[in-house]
Amino acid sequence: MMKLLVLAQTPPPVHGQSLMVQLLVEGLPKCGIEVHHVQMRLSRSHADIGHWRPEKILVTLLATLSARRIARRERCTALYYVPSPAKRGAFYRDLVAMGICRNPRLALVLHWHAFGLGEWVTTRANPFERALGRRLLGGADLALVLAPELEADAAIFNPKRTVVVPNGLPDSGPPAIHTTGKRCEILFLGLGSREKGLFDTVEAVAQLNSANPGGYRLTFAGSFPSAADELAFNSRASELRGAVRHVGFADEPRKRALFGEADLFCLPTRYPHEGQPLALIEAMANDLRIVTSRWRAIPRMLPPQFVWYAEPGNTASLATAVECAAGSPPPGGASRRHFLTHFTIERHLAAMTEALSSLDS
Is the pLDDT of residue 142 over 60? Predict the structure, then answer.
């Protein structure tokens, strides 16, 4: 039996990477893989993700030393690690972790959830960082990527083998039957940053309501990356008088209710580290029309119909896409079928198990 040492953070905070690690830690034992998880409690909140704090060095040291002891005691056969996004402080965390934990007797599995580190090492890192990064992160026995479009970034580190394993989520069942009202209800779920497209969506709703007063309402469920972003959002929302609302973090029951109330889902992202947004998978599972951007691997993951694309950062383009989506018929089960075919947790764990099992051959 494979014994997998997982050195990664699970929620909280809840975000795509931490949630997928949790599903992996919980799901792989049911697939015949023994998992030993060492918690990397690096981020306290969404605003803390990828940002430097001196305490993170101590957390990294303690976690990696613990992982090394567990690997030896349990005779683990492989080390699973999620490399950082393209941020210098987080990159040095990776170097510390790999410097302590990497061992010739342990097969190294790098799961590339965030895009951009390879590009950063090639174009922006200094020669010392470039050499150290390629030494400590290079030559992994297995690189896992979310989509073919993301392979080139991981290839900078010359893994011995690369396998595409799309994300997957548990199915909460068929969505509730939704009756369309006079107002189009738009849902934005996730991190409320400018790069993710929240503020573009706010302005698109403002533009649409200026032509059709009261015709559109935006609901944002999630948290902000900074206090400044939260202040800017609340200020603009108050000016729009009920056309925009923030409901905070949504747990699973609340999230399901919000999806049931929505007419369409909006995520016009241009986030530089974007991989394969779980929010879009949730929108498909709930059979919603989707408005998003042709960014990274997003077009490949979505069905050919009931999706409208806007130019990232272009409010007029986004408003047009939302208006077209709102005026079109609902998917009628087509988007949900795409989810069931490609993005269930069962499919994800099966692909993950097959990829990991190849290390023993």
Answer: yes
